[in-house]
Amino acid sequence: MERAMQSWMLPWVVVVGYPGLILGFDRAINGYHESESLLLAAAAVLMMAAAASIPALAARALLIMRDEVGKVLTRGVLYVMFASSSLFTLALGLARMAGIQRPGFIALWVATWLAVGVMLYLRGERSAPPQPEGQVARLRIVHGVTALTLLCGFLLAHLINHDLAVWSVELHGSAMTWLRQWYRSEWVEPVLLALMLVMIGTGIPMVRHYARQRMNAFRIVQTTTGVYVGVYICSHVTAILRGRYGGVETDWFFASGTSLLNGAPMSSRLIPHYAFGTFFLILHIACGLRIVLVQHGLGKVFANRALYGVASAGVVVVALAMAALLGFHIEGSE
Questions:
Q1: DSSP per-residue letters across 61-88
Q2: Listed residue (81, 107, 112, 116) closest to 19, CA to CA
Q3: Between 212 and which of 122, 130, 238, 271 could a Cys-Cys bridge form, CB atoms 3.0 to 4.6 Å apart?
Q4: Residue ranges of the chain with pLDDT lower than 50?
Q5: CA distance linking residue 227 with residue 206, whole number of Å
Q6: How far apart are the first and last CA of the chain?
Q7: Domain-by-domain residue ranges, the chain?
Q8: How high is the pLDDT of residue 3?
Q9: What whole-number distance in Å separates Cα of residue 322 and Cα of residue 326?
């Protein structure tokens, strides 16, 4: 068996079993709340760790293939696997809109990924010739300008607002109400949504382009995180619009209930969804910053340090937001 095939099979197995890991986590953590059994707590941690291992396993497989040219199919599936935490949340939301109940959705998820695995195993890889770099040069410019506009006009404030919840939900709510005067105004919100569509629309052909090339580790991180962010945006925006259309206030409790550790069945799927969505967004921005710094002659050493610095800040941002989502708040905490 080729090493490349072995590399994609491990993340594929975890993706197939992803619904079981999430349901298993729910049962273990609920059992812990009832009995305070350390064994159940350990089981919950292990199941969530396994569920959260998919991006690392998919990225490892892509690193193994980094010197190969034209492996579009396998790389494409690995990109989708990398984003499976948010893809699961997006697919579940769409299934609910279509009237598909949870057991039916789980069966559909497992069957789809089993079919994908069989396809990869039987079909093998058909190489696609690499494309000239010039074909994505303009897309990179549009993508970068759009990202900078979204970052300054919405994302920075949005991320900071989520971190405020670690102090109190009330502080988060007050800041959100104030910020909504800007990003939900009748002329700003459509522009923000359009910019997100531009981000995704320019990102897809760039990922397809680089999937045909030899890629170093930085390019793999940039493309995989870009795919994850695209899926996360689709999932997040779909959920928000669906909630608003249904007359639901899309506030903190819409996102997490009282806590993702004791919410509705399968609400724990949002733990990797939110954590990876936020961190990979920041890491993707850091990768873009690295490219800009290198292109402006500041050197790879400086550019790499900038990337690591921004990524480290991202860890702090995610840690604060996830602590709040998991029910920790400074004001009111014992």
A1: HHHHTTT-SS-HHHHHHHHHHHTHHHHH
A2: 107
A3: 130
A4: 1, 334
A5: 10
A6: 55
A7: 3-325
A8: 52
A9: 6
